[in-house]
Amino acid sequence: MRKLYSYFRSSAAYRVRIALALKGADYLTVPVHLLRDGGEQHLPAFRALNPAELVPMLDDDGTLLTQSLAIIEYLDETCPGPALLPADPAGRARVRALAQSIACEIHPLNNLRVLAYLRDELGVSQAARDGWYRHWVEHGLAVVERQLAGDARTGRFSHGDTPTLADCCLVPQIFNALRFSCRLDGLPTALRIYEQCMQLPAFQSAAPERQPDAE
Amino acid sequence: MRKLYSYFRSSAAYRVRIALALKGADYLTVPVHLLRDGGEQHLPAFRALNPAELVPMLDDDGTLLTQSLAIIEYLDETCPGPALLPADPAGRARVRALAQSIACEIHPLNNLRVLAYLRDELGVSQAARDGWYRHWVEHGLAVVERQLAGDARTGRFSHGDTPTLADCCLVPQIFNALRFSCRLDGLPTALRIYEQCMQLPAFQSAAPERQPDAE
């Protein structure tokens, strides 16, 4: 049985939940609470499975997979269901680059552990940490907007008219931006695609508040 | 003609230079100086091509590609030469996850623009910025070491006995760690693989000091 080690609020886990739902792939959720008891991801039992002490991790019948984008590509290569990457190399590169514009340029700066370092090691105030968070989200999403709006390959979704890996990353990032009251004016294309995605049951069922460990 | 927009010290550009060299693919270097005149990546002429205002960017006969990992996968899919990803989905997922453990967990925190924000917006001292840099490199490489040392699929290189996308990411990260005097004890496997890579002409020719824009 496929098991996803997940935390409802982890946006990296959220990406994988969307991909699993788009593929129609069954799985059990194993909740890993990132805040309880100093973080369950640091427990020896979890660390023995994943030295990175991060969620998501997918256990596919004993094959352990980490890093959300790598997991999604694995699902695309091994599961039936709609393709999450285009067939042409240039299109695949574009979808991966859009995903990485979020997964490498925005999200790593706003992880829980980074915010904790700012607070505990550098003594950065709550207000300045909030400013940091919004800065990277707003700057990063403005880049994504230009990448989307300036390319004829953008369709109803980030690339063409079906959801891809890029949308699996875009939706959780917009969700976080909304949660932390980031400025979203100037993002008409990204928000249009977000709304389009949220019409689909796969995106709805993957949302944080629909998870078994939601609080 | 293939053109790589590169900066000799960019470790993301370094990754792509390694992949191009492993593939034996010819290209012209277009230097983009990230520090001169406030950063040439912000010039309107470059920004019009790449809204992210980042290097590397590959121009493959008019197809513009961004994000180093996406570019390397594109090269692997379109160029002859040795494969940079294994054939089996689980192996591909492992190589991608190793690459992303560097490209998503370490490198984004130590970008020039992040260090500039710490200095200019948060007033973080040089000593504390150096501590930040070393913290994320040392923590992140310790994770990579455990991922490498604890998996029988690690061979002469990060995955098996030929270089992959994972090695394209590992070498520039170790190079940076050496440059910034990070602690590297406790990384016997990562350092062994680094030394192994640096025996190969492809890794040697991609090094920062060998680039036309090296200072």
Automatic annotation (TrEMBL), chains A, B:
Keywords: Isomerase, Pyruvate. This is Maleylacetoacetate isomerase/maleylpyruvate isomerase. Belongs to the GST superfamily. Zeta family. The lineage of its organism: Bacteria, Pseudomonadati, Pseudomonadota, Betaproteobacteria, Neisseriales. It holds the Pfam family GST_N_3. One of its GO terms (biological process) is L-phenylalanine catabolic process. The keyword Isomerase applies. Residues 1-83 form the GST N-terminal domain. One of its GO terms (molecular function) is glutathione transferase activity. CDD domains: GST_C_Zeta, GST_N_Zeta. Residues 88-215 form the GST C-terminal domain. GO terms for cellular component: cytoplasm.
